[in-house]
Amino acid sequence: RTVYVNGSYLPEEEATVSIFDRGFLFADAVYEVTSVVRGKLIDFDGHMARLRRSLGELALSSPVSDEEMLAIHRELVTRNDIDEGLIYLQVTRGSAGDRDFAFPPADTKPTLVLFTQAKKVIENPAAGTGLKVISIDDIRWGRCDIKTVQLLYPCLAKMAAKHAHVDDAWMVRDGLVTEGSSNNAYIVTSEGTIVTREKSQSILHGITRAATLRLAEEKGLKVEERGFSIEEAKNAREAFITSASLFVMPVVEIDGAAIGEGRPGELSRRLREIYIEDALKTAI
Ligand code: PMP
Q1: What is the pLDDT of residue 284?
Q2: 136 Cβ closer than 6 Å to some ligand 1 atom
Q3: CA separation (Å) from 17 to 29, 95, 152?
Q4: Angle 47-14-100 from CA coordinates, rounded to 5°
Q5: Per residue of the chain (284 residues), what is the pLDDT tens digit?
Q6: Buried b / exposed e across 96-107, counting CB within 10 Å, b at 16+?
């Protein structure tokens, strides 16, 4: 696999970053994951807009322009012959050559790393069966709207799910679901209303969330942005999640309780199709 690091395209074995890099020492870094379908990028502009926002919130400087970022993404797709998969991008604050909590001098160069992952994103077999989730306390920090690489708690949440023999965990704060460990969470009420947590500093503002809600409203579906409890979710008609890598993915079980008939719901499946159709049309 060819990866990108600070201006160079290299075989992955040859790509290196300093041990003093603040991404490594302090998780002082932000990231994005963009999906590739038929060799094209889904919602690239959305991911770049969120990257700019994450960088801005942490006073991180941008290593390259959006145009260069697009060129790097495309070059990696070509060099790795990616038809379907993901591109991971990370920007760190770089390093001034020692460990110091305070930010390094302003002229310190940020580190930019990108790599590809070939993966079936459209024909994902999980879409046919749906995911099972457990609930877990959301004890993350207060700025979940910034896409930092500080992902230890989501890793622990995934491990809790694994130990419970399910696929993922939905995080709960003050009695209401915030989001999944690496995705946004939704339910469909008995009236057919799509409910998902409102945007705030408590959740990541998913690029797939924005697209899904826009498409749902275009199709005349009712959307409510508010918190919901695990109890409400267990009694919902359907449940699903969204993320750049899973698109719209049905959820069929929460804390051992079957959602609806315990199979992917009709609306969730339809939304997945609508999302994929739109993504294929708008990918660049
Ligand atoms: N919430 C969290 C905590 C995430 O990590 C992600 C994916 N990175 C999402 C939501 C979904 O965001 P997106 O649709 O932009 O992938």
Answers
A1: 97
A2: no
A3: 13, 10, 20
A4: 65
A5: 999 999 999 999 999 999 999 999 999 999 999 999 999 999 999 999 999 999 999 999 889 999 999 999 999 999 999 999 999 999 999 998 999 999 999 889 999 999 999 999 999 999 999 999 999 999 999 999 999 999 999 999 999 999 999 999 999 999 999 999 999 999 999 999 999 999 999 999 999 999 999 999 999 999 999 999 999 999 999 999 999 999 999 999 999 999 999 999 999 999 999 999 999 999 99
A6: beeeeeeebeee
User: What is the best residue among 30, 243, 248 to mutate for testing ligand 1's pocket, by most ligand atoms within 8 Å of CB?
Assistant: 243
Render the burial of 256-273: b for 16+ CB within 10 Å, e for the rest. Answer: eeebbeebbbebbbebbe
> What backbone torsions phi and psi does residue 129 show, to the nearest 5 degrees?
-100, -30
234 given a catalytic annotation: no
Domain 126-282 has CATH 3.20.10.10: yes
Atom number, ligand 1, closest to the C-alpha of residue 181: 3
Q: Classify domain 2-118 at the CATH topology level.
A: D-amino Acid Aminotransferase; Chain A, domain 1 (3.30.470)
Domain ranges of the chain: 2-118, 126-282
Q: State the residue for tokens 């999944």.
A: 180
Using most ligand atoms within 8 A of CB, pick from 204, 212, 246 the residue to mutate for ligand 1. 204
- Residue 243 Cα to ligand 1 midpoint, Å, equals 5
Residue pointed to by tokens 């315990």: 262
For ligand 1, atom 2: residue with the closest CA = 182
Q: Which atom of ligand 1 is nearest to the CA of 184?
A: 10
Does the structure's ipTM exceed the value 0.90? Answer: yes
**C-beta atoms surrounding 46 within 10 Å:** 18
